[in-house]
What does this fold into?
Amino acid sequence: MLDVAALERCGDAGLRAVCEAGVDWLQLRDRSQSGADLLAAADRAVAAAHASGRRVRVVVNRRADVARAAGADGVHLGFDAMRAAQARALLGAQAWIGVSAHDPVAVGAEPHADYVHLAPIFPPLSKTSDRTPLGLAGLRAAGSAGVAVIAQGGIEPANVREVVASGAAGVAVTGTIANAPDPVRAARALRSALDA
It folds into this structure.
């Protein structure tokens, strides 16, 4: 995930380099931004993703209207956003629509979602959290819902293999890349761990 402040720190060349290093998708989130500022950030992310020469999806948190206007691949819906069926009607059948869950039991609750972010698996690296980490057992419990589960929270190259082995269809990170001294190197390390 990439908040708008992280996008500004990376700059266009840095964002493109992170995409080239193996990132499969960018998720833009920043509740403090106006719609116009978020749209400008989404336009930049979409341009960097396309310029990378790789298939890098861009999703925008909560704002299906911004995702549509920017030509992003989809929207990630939090707990206070529209329902996945509404987003699907607005963005179309090909849109990538995700939702959040903090409990394995809630993973199958949105039948129109393509994926569910399940978090936190481990203590987050990007922020403090009062949520108890679900651990690998929680991730395994979510696997029976019949939807792709994207594991988030404390994911780094050292634990990505066990996360995928526990049923994750993919991983989402913030701190592993955004807080790294060299985000491109961090993205490459994560990509290498995933590919292994």
Remarks:
- Residues 2-195 form a domain with the TIM Barrel fold (CATH 3.20.20.70).
- The longest strand covers residues 96-101.
